[in-house]
Amino acid sequence: MEKRDSFGSKFGVLVAMAGSAVGLGNLWRFPYLVGENGGAIFIIIYLVFVFLIGLPLMINEFVIGRRSQANVFGAFKTLCKDKSSLWGKVGIISVLCSLTILSFYCVVGGWTIDYLFRSISLQFTADTNYEQMFAESSAHVFRPLISTCIFLFFTALVVVLGVKKGIEKYSKIMMPLLILMIIAISIRSMLLSGAKEGIDFLFKPDFSKLTGQTVMAALGQAFFSLSIGCGTIITYASYVKKEEHIINDSFYTVVADFSFALLAGLAIMPAVFAFNTSPSEGPGLVYITLPHIFAQIPAGGMLAIIFFFILLFAALTSSISLLEVVVAFLIEEFHLKRTSAVILSVAVSAGLGVLCSLSMGLLKEWTIAGFTIFDCLDKLSANILLPLGGLLFVLFAGWKIPKADYYDELSNSGTVHVKPWLMKSIRFIIKYVAPVVILVILIVGLLPKQ
Ligand code: PHE
To answer: Using one digit for the tens of pLDDT, what is the confidence trace for 317-334?
Structure first.
């Protein structure tokens, strides 16, 4: 088998991790969830989950990945001492979960390509019917399928090149550019007259809006946005060198992701309120409400191009990480060549993606508990599969990986100084706090609503 690829530099690790985390979750999902779940109160709960649960879970995935130096399936197989135990097979759930997410992620990525094209060809005019435009881009039979395949093609192109020459190189160029662009757009948005109401919506909590649903949505979003719970971080961390300080890397990744989500909120909400539109439009917020607003702002055409450019390239850095989970699994467990592994995984994702895409139109009637296939996959993966995956990871690490090994990995075999209280707290959260919190929220979230 070929030698394992690895990241070439610290900066490379950080941009690749942040690239995986920052994506549609920040720019498409976060703003519409904030809108649907009462604004600031959702952000506060989200912030608590991101740092209390998300950060330790990310560190935990780093530990599992770097210690095992293997794909997510191989990681559990390697670290599980008892070869007959089911724990050694847990990684397969993560591979399937990544495929599931990729199959609806590429559909949204496809809409984004469509919208970038529409913004470049100046289709956002004051008298356009944006509901109809979105329906055409999402519910049409062929149009979204073509853009979904183009999106998958670009994803595959980077993954075929491998970790250092593909993923790392691409992330190094894109991430700094995306950060500069989102800062520019949020400043422009905050300067609109009437923007203050939108800023208040983001930062002044209304506690009466707090419900069990808000809490579950916030936890799901923390998992989805940080890319934790489905083995992406485990896979990327397996390419991280032994000298890397994994606690620092995790912290920077989480801060980058949270800041990007806030910037996305600041780019979108002030504009939504300044134009008296509703923030609770759901998944259509970015595709229906925003273009309508862009059409009315001076230089809005340019802003629209920049926005959909950011959305597309942020989505690509994330879909690349999802694909890499499956590809690394196929290469290491079935000894496939990288190119064949990429072709096979993309073909399966495209097949599932077609179903997802058609469920916006032709297959709208195919529902489970009232949800279309697309909604099912979106909600199922973020609110159930990822937290469940995260729960398995913490139970495994907390109860199956010996404490000494865990601390050894956190401190690079004692070569970096990590305060003992910090290591103890991380281990305590992983062993006791995170499993209880995740389990309670999952159970409460799944109880039938009165
Ligand atoms: N974190 C990505 C985003 O915010 C989505 C993702 C989820 C990527 C899970 C990998 C794993 O868009």
So the answer is: 999 999 999 999 999 999
